[in-house]
Each structure stands twice: as structure tokens, then as C-alpha cells.
Amino acid sequence: MIPNKKNACGGAFTDWLEVNLIDRCNAACSWCVEQYGYHPTTHIGCEELSTIIVSSEYKNIILLGGEPTLYKDIGNLIVALNEAGKNVYITTNGRKLTPDFVNENLNGLTGVNISLHHYDMNKNQNITRLVIKIKDIIESIKMLHRFGTTVRLNCNCIKKYIDSRKEIMNYIKFAQSIGADKIRFAELKNDFEGFVNLGKILNYEYGLNDNPFICGCNNDVVIDGMPVNFRQMCGLQTPLRITPIDPQQIKHKVLYYDGKFYDGWQLNKKESKMDSKKLKKILELVAKGELTPEEALNIIEPELDEHESGGGCVY
Prior knowledge:
Helices cover 30% and strands 18% of the residues. It is an alpha/beta fold.
């Protein structure tokens, strides 16, 4: 099956590089996609990392994690990428955002995505276990705007929180009141209990559908004057939708903090050792000349890796 061309796995966003900047986070979201993620043991320095990014072909760079504001050299990295002509974005849970932190570390960003999963900060705390002071967020947004940085709020729609048209509209009013420029509403990945079907709660308006792989998982609209992006999960991201048969996917490169590029975001394998019988069979085929050493290596190497691609997209 061929994905919609608006989807990341269908060929959109080819000029974007996602960077897994750090393996630590100060939040505790139960549905976090990175809790099962692959975490390299090697961390290269900021200068080396920035050199790799600057040398890459990508124009748009998005710094992710973990929580990227915990990266000790975040300010230096942003400056280096900005001076090299890259468009730099960051996605943060907002815990460290204050006017002083923004002024000292985030000048030079093209855009900031702040993940606030409810307009009531007490409920957001229930979700993330983080204390967020809305006054700090408002003042930080003002500072970012002075730098020419756009601000988008990211909201994962979760049952009993943002789970109805009314709650969507309340969140839009909240975003407008604090000066945000955009909103992204997203469905949860691989979460049964908290999953909210955006198509269903919004009566399948705005291009929302029940087959995002084919019909599109990203839809940009304007609601009450606010630019809104809806991000839906297809059957590759949630078992609550039909799984595409033999799906074709374009896997975007992700740069990890070990300085290596990977095909998509990585998941830890449950088993990382190749079965000895399979290995013996491969070696026998090489001995018989039915497999070249290079062909055998292509089979063996993925089996020996401790990680594998988690699919065409995560964020």
C-alpha cells in the first residue's frame, strides 16, 4: 500500500532533519514514545554534533529528545546552526522556559513547539508530572516573538482531558490568550486507554479520517483565526486502526547524540542475538558459493543490532 504524499512516510518533510539531542527528560508522560526508544551509550560533544548537522543536506533542523532544553550546550548549538544558515526548531515540554532562559539560550530559533497537553496547568501536571507556571510561558512567548521566533503549542489529545469538540475549542481560546501562533492536535501512538479519535470527535471535518495512511495523517486548517494542524495515527502507529498491507514507507534520517544517522527513530529489540541455526545456514551458503560474503553480511548485521527502526515517523 502506498501512503498519502502529505505523510512523512509518503515523502513529505524531506528537507527536515530530526535530532535526538539527549536521552534525559524531566517529565513522566505515560505514553512517551521514547520510553522504549534506543538510547546510544556514546555522547559526542556539541562542536562535533553541530559540524555534522551543518555539513548535512538538510535546511530545517528540529531538536528533540528526551527534553532538549536539558542539553547543557543548547545555546551554543543553536547559535552555530543559525550562523550556518539552518532553520532551527525545538520541541520542549516548557518546564525550563522563562524569559531569562529564553534570552540566554534560545535566541536564533526559527520556531519553538511547546508541549502543553491541557489548557489547565493542573491537569497538564497530572499528565506530565511537571509544574508549569503559565506566567513564565506567556513571558517566554513574548521574548521569543521579539527574536522573530514563531511559537506552536503541541497538544496530545487524551481521553478525559482534551477529548471533545468543546475541549478542542477551549484549547484554541487558551492558545490565543497566551499569544501562541499555531497549534498541533495529535492522537496518541500505541495507547489504548487514552486514545482519542480526532475524526470521530470532530465529525470527520477538516480532512480527518479513519485511514490516515491512505487519506493523510497531517491536515492544516484555520479554526477561529488560529492555524491548526491535526496529526492522526495510522495502523502502523496504533492497533486501533487497520494496519496497512505491505506498506511502502520513506524512512527519514534521524541524527542521534552519538553522531550517527539512523533510518527513522529506533526501538530496542526484544532479542538482539541471531539464532545459531540461522547463522550456521548462512555460513553454509557462503561456503557453497550460493551467497557472497557481502550478501551474508547484509543479512547478519541487522540481526546483530540492538535496535531497529520504529517506522517512518514518531513525532
